[in-house]
Automatic annotation (TrEMBL):
Pfam families in the record: Semialdhyde_dh, Semialdhyde_dhC_1
CDD domains, per database record: AGPR_2_C, AGPR_2_N
Gene coding for it: argC2
Catalytic activity reported: N-acetyl-L-glutamate 5-semialdehyde + phosphate + NADP(+) = N-acetyl-L-glutamyl 5-phosphate + NADPH + H(+)
Localization terms from the record: Cytoplasm
Limits of the Semialdehyde dehydrogenase NAD-binding domain: 5-106
Protein name: N-acetyl-gamma-glutamyl-phosphate reductase
Catalytic residue list: C117
EC number: 1.2.1.38
Record family assignment: Belongs to the NAGSA dehydrogenase family. Type 2 subfamily.
Keywords: Amino-acid biosynthesis, Arginine biosynthesis, Cytoplasm, NADP, Oxidoreductase
SMART domains: Semialdhyde_dh
Pathway where this protein functions: Amino-acid biosynthesis; L-arginine biosynthesis; N(2)-acetyl-L-ornithine from L-glutamate: step 3/4
NCBIfam families: argC_other
Organism: Paraburkholderia terrae
Length: 309
């Protein structure tokens, strides 16, 4: 029996390069990419995507839609790493740990949309708490996140690692119009009744994310506190291989959160920081924006799909 053919379309960007690196030594699959001269040839790309078993799209949104439209072979399965299909109901959301049965849905899906980097942390924190009814659907959710500059793709890497790197900013908050493209994805898959406020930023480090969600306990049910919230997250991820909820004692001993601590992995650490005196709780997620936030998640989804190939 021949090995399944996995085609990476767009393997020269940050996500595509990382996926290729994670897969290049695998012997259980045949990895295929296009030569440089063929990457912009629509006919050659269409031939390649229709000849594979699973296509991983690492393309801008418009190009990802075009690639999917070019598929005429019903046997071709797709993992789309762009944001083109993340809120589409006929695509399976590629966050295996999000809810019970999601890994099985991904394993059997024909079309899987890889989560965005920021949404991975936000949904990872909020979805279990929303499902358990500990946070009401109309809660005014506010999310702050800082990512490494690779989150900007090639432009960010060039700015910080190219000839003009000495002039690269140390820190920059963006998305000031409060219309970041990840916000609808967060709202849909976290189960929020209203749009959250999302404020992202880039730091002068290559990769890694710290994402935080502050909660005011006065807006939650009287019996909900930091211990309740932590217990819910701990139960939800008890069997998860790639998501760890830090024990309350371990979290409370932390003096800071390092966005780079999980770089190079497909893992995510979630923490709960309660302030009993003021009735506040801070939720946090730390992970690699190129790992669990992109290429690591794509490979995790690929492995699930290959098991059902």
């Amino acid at each position: 029996m021949s090995s399944p053919v996995v085609f990476i379309d767009g393997d020269q960007g940050t996500t595509g390069l990382q996926i290729h690196e994670r897969l290049r030594n695998r012997t259980d699959l045949e990895l295929f990419t296009l030569a440089a001269a063929e990457r912009k040839d629509p006919q050659r790309r269409a031939e390649a995507i229709n000849a594979c078993d699973i296509a991983i799209l690492c393309l801008p949104d418009a190009a990802a839609r075009e690639a999917v439209e070019a598929i005429v072979n019903p046997a071709v399965r797709v993992i789309d790493a762009s944001s083109a299909h993340r809120t589409q109901p006929d695509w399976t959301y590629g966050f295996p740990e999000m809810t019970m049965g999601q890994a099985e849905r991904i394993a059997n899906a024909r079309r899987v949309t890889n989560p965005g980097c920021y949404p991975t942390g936000a949904i990872g924190l909020l979805r279990p708490l929303m499902q358990a009814g500990l946070i009401p659907g109309n809660y005014p959710v506010s999310i702050q996140a800082v990512s490494g500059y690779s989150g900007r793709g090639r432009a960010g890497v060039e700015e910080h690692e190219g000839q003009g790197a000495v002039n690269a900013p140390l820190f920059q908050v963006y998305g000031l119009e409060l219309a970041h493209k990840h916000t609808p994805e967060i709202q849909r898959h976290a189960g929020l009744a209203q749009r959250p406020i999302f404020v992202p930023a880039y730091g002068a480090f290559r990769q890694g994310i710290v994402l935080t969600v502050p909660l005011d306990l006065r807006l939650l049910a009287p019996d909900v506190d930091g211990t309740t919230l932590h217990a819910c997250l701990a139960r939800h991820y008890a069997e998860a291989a790639h998501v760890r909820v830090l024990p309350l004692q371990e979290s409370c001993a932390l003096k800071h959160l390092d966005p780079q601590v999980l770089n190079g992995t497909n893992d995510m650490h979630l923490s709960v920081f309660p302030n009993i005196e003021h009735g506040h709780v801070l939720l946090s997620a730390v992970f690699d924006n190129l790992g669990k936030g992109a290429s690591g998640a794509a490979v995790q989804n690929l492995n699930l799909m290959l098991a059902q190939q």
